[in-house]
Amino acid sequence: MSTKDKVLKILEENRDTHISGENIATELGISRTAVWKAVKNLKSDGHSISSVTNRGYKLDDLSDKLDKWAIINYLDKEIKESDVRVYNTIDSTNTEAKRLLNSEELSNFTILVSDEQTAGRGRRGKSFTSPKGTGVYFSIIFFPKDNFSYNSFDLVTIKAAVSIVKAIEKTTDKKPEIKWVNDIFLNHRKICGILTEADIDFESKKVRSIVTGIGINFTTEFTGELSPIAGSLLAEDLLRSQLVAEVINEFYKSLYCRSDEEILEEYKSHSLLLGRYVNFELNGVKYEAIAKDINEKGNLIVETDDGNIMTLSSGEVSVRGQF
What we know:
Elements: H1 3-13, H2 21-28, H3 32-45, E1 49-52, E2 56-59, H4 68-74, E3 84-87, H5 93-103, E4 110-114, E5 135-142, H6 153-171, E6 177-179, E7 183-186, E8 189-201, E9 206-217, H7 240-256, H8 260-269, E10 277-282, E11 285-294, E12 300-303, E13 309-312, E14 317-319
Parallel strand pairs: 3-4
Antiparallel strand pairs: 1-2, 4-5, 5-9, 6-7, 7-8, 8-9, 10-11, 10-14, 11-12, 12-13
Helix pairs in contact: 1-3, 1-4, 2-3, 4-7, 6-7, 6-8
Protein name: Bifunctional ligase/repressor BirA
GO molecular function, one term: transferase activity
Pfam family, one: BPL_LplA_LipB
C-alpha cells in the first residue's frame, strides 16, 4: 500500500476529528514531510481535506470522492475484509468482473466500484448512462453454495432490489419503489438499475459465480428524452461511499442471513406494479392485465380481464399510462 493510501485510510477511519501530522507520521513510521506530501497528493486527486494549525488534518464532512477506505469504513464487521477495488473510470464494472473471473482467483464477495462507466450495461442489451462524479456504479462478485439452483437465479435480482430500497430508507427519508424486476423508482422516475449475470456449467447446471451490477443515479441531471423518465436520489448529507457500503451490507444480509420468504414480502411491499393494470408483450402478442402477485421464483403473476392467469419470468412491463 502506498503512503498516500495509508494516510487516506487513517483519515477515513477518523472522519469525525482532526488528526495531527505528527500522530499520522508516528503511526506509519514516516516523516511529517512525507505526511504533508501525501495529503497534498490526496487533494490533487480530488479529496477535500482541511488543515488546521495545532489540530491537524481532517476529511471535510462532504468530501465525496469514492475510495476504498471510505467504503470499507461503512461496511459491517462481517464483510470489512472484503476485496474492494475502486476505479476512476471503466467500461463496465460487470464487464471487469468477468475479466477478473477469467484471470484471477477471486475471494467471495469481491466488490468493484467505479466513479464512471463508459459502457454501462442494463438488461436486454440496454445501455446505462454512467457519468463521472454523479452516480455510484458497482458490482458484487460472489460464489453460490453447491445447492444453489438456477431456478432461483431471478431471486438474486429480487434480493438486490430489496437491499437498495432498504439502504436508501436507512440513510435518507425517501421512499423508493421497485418496478419488476430490476428497476428502482423514486417520484415516478427511474433512479437505479440492476444487472445480474451468472457463469454456468451447462453440463452440470451448476452456477459457478454470480455478478450483480448496480447503478444508482445520485446527483445526475438528465435532459432531452431521458428527462421525464430518469431521476436521481438527490440525498443531502449522504456520501456516495456510505450509500455503496449500506447497499452492500444489506445485500450480504439478503443473501446469507434472511429467508427468501422474508425478502419476497419486502419486495412486494415496495412494488409499484401490484394491483395496477400493466401492459406487456408475450410471444409477439400485446396484453393488458392486472399485476396480482410475485411468486416464490420472483415471477410476476398477472390476470387479464377475462380471468386468464399468466406467469411472466422476463420482459418489459409498464404501468398503464405511466413508466
